């Protein structure tokens, strides 16, 4: 007989999203991966410490505290990959449109 998880897949997706957002925020603060890795292990340990909490009320409190902690630590200027939307190279030197060339002077 296998153990059945009391939580839905939506709950698992939410916790994964919270974990990824927390790691991403830490990476915004700590750019060097060798230093960031130690912080990532701390974040993982915090999530693992609450892995076996099955009481919905206490879990809601834990998740609420985690969201509040993340909100209070958000980086004011998060890192954006240069080639992603909002990055410094986004749509820089985009190729010209391949449509027909319109000569404005030919009309006169």
TrEMBL record:
<dbReference type="Pfam" id="PF05347">
    <property type="entry name" value="Complex1_LYR"/>
</dbReference>
<keyword id="KW-0496">Mitochondrion</keyword>
<dbReference type="InterPro" id="IPR033034">
    <property type="entry name" value="NDUFB9"/>
</dbReference>
<protein>
    <recommendedName>
        <fullName>NADH dehydrogenase [ubiquinone] 1 beta subcomplex subunit 9</fullName>
    </recommendedName>
</protein>
<keyword id="KW-0007">Acetylation</keyword>
<dbReference type="InterPro" id="IPR008011">
    <property type="entry name" value="Complex1_LYR_dom"/>
</dbReference>
<comment type="similarity">
    <text>Belongs to the complex I LYR family.</text>
</comment>
<keyword id="KW-0813">Transport</keyword>
<comment type="function">
    <text>Accessory subunit of the mitochondrial membrane respiratory chain NADH dehydrogenase (Complex I), that is believed to be not involved in catalysis. Complex I functions in the transfer of electrons from NADH to the respiratory chain. The immediate electron acceptor for the enzyme is believed to be ubiquinone.</text>
</comment>
<comment type="subunit">
    <text>Mammalian complex I is composed of 45 different subunits.</text>
</comment>
<keyword id="KW-0679">Respiratory chain</keyword>
<dbReference type="GO" id="GO:0006120">
    <property type="term" value="P:mitochondrial electron transport, NADH to ubiquinone"/>
</dbReference>
<feature type="domain" description="Complex 1 LYR protein">
    <location>
        <begin position="15"/>
        <end position="70"/>
    </location>
</feature>
<dbReference type="GO" id="GO:0005743">
    <property type="term" value="C:mitochondrial inner membrane"/>
</dbReference>
<keyword id="KW-0999">Mitochondrion inner membrane</keyword>
<keyword id="KW-0597">Phosphoprotein</keyword>
<dbReference type="InterPro" id="IPR045292">
    <property type="entry name" value="Complex1_LYR_NDUFB9_LYRM3"/>
</dbReference>
<keyword id="KW-0472">Membrane</keyword>
<keyword id="KW-0249">Electron transport</keyword>
């Amino acid at each position: 007989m296998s153990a059945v998880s009391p939580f839905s897949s939506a709950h698992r997706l939410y916790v994964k999203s919270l974990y990824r957002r927390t790691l991403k925020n830490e990476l915004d603060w700590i750019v060097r991966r060798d230093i960031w890795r130690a912080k990532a292990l701390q974040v993982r340990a915090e999530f693992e410490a609450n892995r076996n909490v099955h009481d919905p009320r206490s879990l809601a409190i834990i998740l609420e505290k985690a969201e509040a902690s993340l909100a209070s630590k958000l980086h004011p200027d998060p890192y954006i990959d240069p080639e992603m939307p909002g990055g410094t190279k986004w749509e820089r030197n985009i190729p010209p449109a391949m449509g027909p060339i319109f000569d404005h002077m030919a009309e006169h």
